[in-house]
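Lesson 9: reading folded outputs for more than one chain in a single document. The general rule is that every protein is listed as its sequence immediately followed by its structure tokens, and records are never interleaved. Here is the first one.
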Amino acid sequence: MLTTPQLDFATYFANFSLAYGYLDVDSVIEFYALPFEVTFENECNTWIERASLHDTLTALYAWMQQQGFHQPHYEIIEAQRTDGTAYALLKWRIVNNDGQRVSYFNRYQMQCIAGEWKITGIIRTDDEAALLVVPA
């Protein structure tokens, strides 16, 4: 029986942010597992092929670079791990080309796959409250 490896959220997202901060598609995609799902403005998109996800990220990151994606910083707002799944809510702050500070929230759904923690989905919003887990 395989045991689930520990997940140090601080280290994991420090490594992820290095790739994401440079909008490095090849490095970022290594953190993702297929199928991969993104929800943004109540619209959900799913990728089942790596090449298609790579193409989408390439186009998205080119657009982000045009708008300005400078000085990215994040803060882990909330994180929780169970035996084989986890999630983390991060607040991202960037500066765009106009010098405006922009912030948004990503909730990362994670799963341990073949002994490695991978991101299986992202929910993106500007409203932190929409992503907080409310205890039952």
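And here is the second record, again sequence then tokens.
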Amino acid sequence: MKKKKDVYLKSHVLLIGIGFVLIGTLSAYYIYRESPSNIILAAIPFVFGIYTLLCWNNQWIKMINDREFVHSNAIGIKKTYRFSDITKVEQHINAGGIFYSYINIHIAKEIIHIEGNAIVSKKFSDKINAISGQKLLF
């Protein structure tokens, strides 16, 4: 059985990505028919949609055990970290967390960014809360 990821993006991110790819594709079709020189304008939503799909698919964290976890970034590069190497955990909240919040986990000179709307397992959340010494908004 495949082990479930401990942090991953919600499925609405997938829908947003598909939506932007469709908007970009339809825009390309209509812009090309009217003014082929402006076709580059259609690339903006298309590229944003592709990047959103990459993020949805590739950004995740999976705990290996109570001491280590694997993080995969937006382009799918995976790296293993130890919880003991975490130097700082920051929570950023905008407007009381209603509009936007996120958490940055600092490990040496690297930062792991967790979106406020990500799905976070209780086990990972408890581990990060214990390291930070506070209850974070997961």
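What the second record shows: Strands lie at 7-8, 60-63, 68-72, 78-82, 86-94, 100-107, 110-115, 119-120.
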